[in-house]
Write a structure and sequence with these properties.
single chain; Immunoglobulin-like; 8-stranded antiparallel beta sheet; 8 strands; about 10% helix; binds copper (II) ion
Length: about 170
């Protein structure tokens, strides 16, 4: 009986203690008023990413996790897409780890009022376990990701935020 209780408690606790993180996204380009929050959470299915942005020009914008956690130099300091497996560019939720970069979240769409929301689960990626994203950066691009090679033709970076761990 004690063993069953202990097992139940440890299962409950492992879920209650799932790591969470966040990134505060701010404008990286002159004249851009991009602002918002991206919340991240380790789940059994992968990294749950919930973005709520404002001040985004209407339409589709490439939205990726880039390799470094710096937003300096108009977001260029964030480096390339986070691509630990050296795969072609794609959309990780659809194409999987063989045909997409781990950070390839595709596009986020802004409405006419500048608000953009997105919720995705990236399989096989975590905050600081396998394919860790803590300390990397979320980048919002000026244009849509058209999934062309090598990086989707999404143009300049108009928003950027460093991913920090908020709970373990
Ligand atoms: Cu990008």
């Amino acid at each position: 009986m004690k063993i069953i209780i202990a097992l139940t408690l440890s299962l409950v606790c492992s879920y209650a203690n799932a790591a969470t993180g966040s990134a505060r996204v701010t404008a990286t380009a002159a004249g851009s008023s991009v602002y918002g929050t991206v919340k991240l959470e380790d789940t059994a299915k992968g990294l749950k990413v919930t973005a709520e942005l404002s001040g985004v020009p209407a339409g589709d914008h490439g939205f990726h996790i880039h390799e470094f956690g710096s937003c300096e130099d108009s977001g260029k300091a964030a480096g390339a897409h986070y691509n630990p497996e050296k795969t072609p560019h794609g959309m990780i939720m659809k194409d999987g780890h063989k045909k997409a970069h781990a950070g390839d979240m595709g596009n986020i769409t802004a409405k006419d009022d500048g608000k953009a929301v997105l919720q995705v689960v990236i399989p096989g990626v975590s905050l600081h376990g396998k394919f860790p994203v803590a300390g990397r950066a979320i980048i919002l691009h000026e244009k849509a990701d058209d999934f062309g090679q090598p990086v989707g033709n999404a143009g300049a970076r108009i928003g950027c935020g460093t991913i920090v761990v908020t709970a373990d």
